[in-house]
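[Q] Does anyone have a clean structure-token version of this?
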Amino acid sequence: MSKTIFTAAMTGAVHTPGMSPFLPFTPKQIIEDCVACHAAGAGVVHIHVRDPLTGYPTADQDAYKEIATEVKKRCDIVMCLTTGGRADEPTEKRVAVVNTLSPEMCSLNTGSLNFALFQVLQNFDSWKFDWEKPYLEATEDVIFPNTFKTMREYLHFIYENNTKPEFEIYDVGMINNLAFLLDRGIARRPVYLQFVMGILGGIPATPENLVFLVDTARKQIGDFQFSVCAAGKDQMRLCTTYLILGGNARVGLEDSLYLGKGTLAKCNAEQVEKIIRIGKELGVEPASPSEVRKMLGLKGMDQVNF
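[A] Here you go.
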């Protein structure tokens, strides 16, 4: 039985509270979901933070520290903190969490894109908070910026803190970007890729495109470890395809609010349980947090700043 890294992405910066009553956005809710995902078999949790009163995506350092500190007290799950934030977040706020908390892992987006969700507005008639509808409408005219300059600057701080970058790949051109960073010595090997599929503005979530991404990365990068996540209805289907290809899988309410067709997931752990159950049918077992640390060469929880 091979070991596979299962990641749960808690809340993200895309879905809004009016879309699901189960989307966690307070520190307490995110903490409880992280611990539940650990119990369900996840080895990694990917964490964004939000305003605890409204659910609006933020980069509040106190919220990050509260969540990370409490989760660390309660379990040994690996925490991958975002440097993505929301699309219009200033870059200095997005990378601040690396310098503040020096986590074991953080995400790093490898290129700019049109990160759109305005198209879902037609599916909802009412919202929980006033900010949700204009926030989603604005994504029709928002570029999620990740320039070569900011990637270079982020990687400086990431490596200075001995943090492992998880390179987010939304489209095939971003593989080329990462290959350039590796060639110039700005990024370092070994690399861990997270293929993010199905975002409007990025590569469509199809098995054919998944194979294409993996093959392109092998040709341009060489050796790497990899995971996949897919937006919405494609989440479980693409994650299952990736397990067959020998990769790792990410689920969670950041990527999809549903457990199955028409059924909202009541928490992130429900999705973790489902994908692990599928994985076991395919002959793979979930890697424990300690096994994840060995597989990815992480520095360990004793070297973080929380």
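[Q] Thanks! Anything notable?
[A] The radius of gyration is 18 Å.
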